[in-house]
Amino acid sequence: MKVMTYNIRHGVGCDGCLDLRRIERVIRQEQPDLVGLNEVDIHFHRRSGYRDQIKELALNLGMEGYFAPAFQRKLREPVGQYGNGMLVKHKVLEIEKIRFPGYGDEPRSLLALRLCTEGREFMVVVTHIGLSPWIRRVQFNRLIALYHQYNGPMIVTGDWNVKPSHPRIAQLSTFLTDVQSAGGSQEGTYPCSKPKRRIDYILCSQHFQVEAAWVCKTPDCPSDHLPVVGVLQWKKKC
Asked: Boundaries of each Endonuclease/exonuclease/phosphatase domain copy (predicted)?
């Protein structure tokens, strides 16, 4: 199973140009089974042409698209939304959406899908962790609670705005594997032009074996982040 996490910055590259086709090409080149997306617009703003980005990407890539809004704009119809999305090839059994208030930071959301592949169920999560310590604590605590509540195979993706040395990453690493690190890569993901910071993650539970992981090089910088890809296999015994 190939998993990707990608903060697409609503399709605006480092050159300031909006071009969702560049994002699409990056995803198509990797042919992932799951893609966690951050900073996705749906009819949100003129910056993205008021388009439904998750619908366009899903349609053009032959995948199913799901979305969890972090906040909305009701200045026009249809209502504009901004948040996290997921593109999947597997059968979706259940969907959960969680919103976090901003309280001085940008509002955030979490999207969790329960999927089935190879006759086995698992949960995949995408979220975008906030910048303030308060909202980070709330989001990480909710993520940990979700893991223990589900108590099954899980994959977590997203832009978390913290380095691997952050205490919260260390806390999660007691029960989730940092896929990029396990795959032998420590490359940065931000900013795209000079990626010095690793802040985008794929984590997985002990039910999966990490076969490989890498940061995708995108010379034309269709976003300010680089995507991370991980190849996972089910373990025979967990």
From this structure: 4-225
